[in-house]
From TrEMBL:
Keywords: Heme, Iron, Metal-binding, Monooxygenase, Oxidoreductase. Transmembrane segments: none annotated. This is Cytochrome P450. Belongs to the cytochrome P450 family. CDD domains: P450cam-like.
Length: 406
């Protein structure tokens, strides 16, 4: 990737010309074939930290050690604004994601409590039943469009049950989630948030008046110590959680299914050892490492120097999670999937105060997908003459994946 000439780039005067690169998060060369390999090419070709004029102009950190440090250092790298390009002024905060400690902890606590390992374990039979039903439905057909027929069915069914919302509402909710996490412009994302808020307002009011034991009731009645969360904050909080619950696990399952369709050797390894818990656990970490999803931005809090780079207060930076898993300084041959890898290093679920509270549930859903799908459909491939449709953005994803089997 070549340095852009000064005459074609508007850059702040504190950014050296030699650190400017032509990087667009929504249009990465090669991403139509392999999203994570396309990011790896950027990582290899660019400085560890560089600046791009695209999407409002922002820094990009490409190396795992820096990214992990930035994820943990909220004193310098704030979550105040996490999307690129920046949302319009006055846009409601994404609660609790666009909060820093200590404020963040008060809002996050009920989400963590609702997704603790013991509670997720109680959901296992439900998750497994949903997976089996979805697989049995497509099994006799010898084909499916995997994203609509399975990847979205499993996590969305489980999540809507967690928040006690009608499964039929997924037809309304899924397009909004897609626009929120992969909308190319701020207007598209803002419209999705406003429409989700309009959908939720009556439901939030009902749960505040008569709380139940569901996750949504817990979120919209958070006790902040000096009173409960306001109605507006409750709607904003519920909006963020629904967008996260409706999209990210589906994306991860989609990437894994695509990989296994393209790599029969790896697929056979898993089929042979589906009952080996330790092996399967490590294999899942390796698959997650190789197929990173989320990309959350940060705002520089104050002027300071970091590893030879001068940051100015208000600068935005993208320490993209997936760069950690594909960093050859942390993982040997990082684009190679090795189920025997001793310690897959990744940041797919973030680090520090903002580590993903849904990580336990996500891993459980991936494991159940592998066990139930591969025990019924051990041999499958991408339909000839079709190509998976992949997307990059704030959350990478697989939009379409046509599979066939004998």
């Amino acid at each position: 990737m070549q340095t852009i000439a000064d005459t074609t780039v508007h850059r702040p005067d504190h950014i050296p010309a030699e650190l400017v690169r032509d990087f667009d998060l929504y249009d990465i060369p090669g991403s139509a074939d392999d999203v994570q390999a396309a990011f790896a090419a950027i990582q290899q070709a660019c400085p560890d930290i560089f600046w791009t004029p695209h999407n409002g102009g922002h820094w990009v950190a490409t190396r795992g050690d820096d990214i992990i440090a930035m994820q943990r250092d909220f004193g310098h790298f704030s979550h105040k604004h996490i999307v690129l390009p920046p949302m319009p002024e006055g846009t409601p905060r994404q609660i609790p994601l666009e909060m820093d400690p200590p404020e963040h902890a008060r809002y996050r606590r009920p989400l963590m409590q609702a997704l603790m390992p013991a509670i997720v374990a109680e959901l296992e039979s439900t998750v497994r039943d949903v997976a089996i039903a979805a697989i049995e439905k497509v099994l006799p057909q010898g084909e499916c469009e995997f994203i609509e027929d399975f990847a979205k069915v499993l996590p969305i069914h489980v999540f809507l049950e967690l928040v006690n919302l009608p499964l039929a509402d997924k037809a309304v909710l899924l397009p909004l989630a897609e626009d929120s996490v992969r909308g190319r412009d701020a207007e598209t994302r803002l419209r999705a948030h406003m429409e989700m808020g309009a959908y939720l307002i009556d439901k939030v009011r009902a749960r505040r008046d008569n709380p139940g034991n569901d996750l949504l009731s817990k979120l919209v009645n958070v006790d902040l110590g000096d009173g409960r969360i306001s109605e507006k904050e409750a709607v904003d909080y519920a909006t963020l959680v629904l967008f996260g619950g409706l999209d990210t696990v589906a994306g991860m399952i989609g990437f894994i299914a695509r990989f296994l369709a393209l790599n029969p050797g790896h697929r056979r390894q898993l089929v042979k050892r589906l009952d080996d818990d330790a092996y399967l656990k490590n294999a899942i970490e390796e698959l997650i490492r190789r197929h990173g999803l989320a990309n959350t931005a940060r705002v520089i809090v104050e002027d300071f120097d970091y590893n030879g780079v001068h940051f100015r207060a208000g600068d935005r930076i993208l320490p993209a999670n997936l760069f950690v898993g594909i960093d050859d300084r942390l993982n040997d041959a990082p684009l190679v999937v090795d189920f025997e890898r001793a310690k897959p290093v990744h940041a797919a679920f973030g680090n520090g105060a903002h580590a993903c509270p849904g990580a336990v549930l996500a891993r459980r859903e991936v494991r159940i997908f592998l066990q139930e799908w591969l025990s019924r459909i051990p041999d499958f491939q991408i339909r000839p003459e079709t190509r998976p449709i992949l997307a990059t953005g704030m959350v990478n994803g697989v939009l379409r994946l046509e599979l066939v089997w004998p």
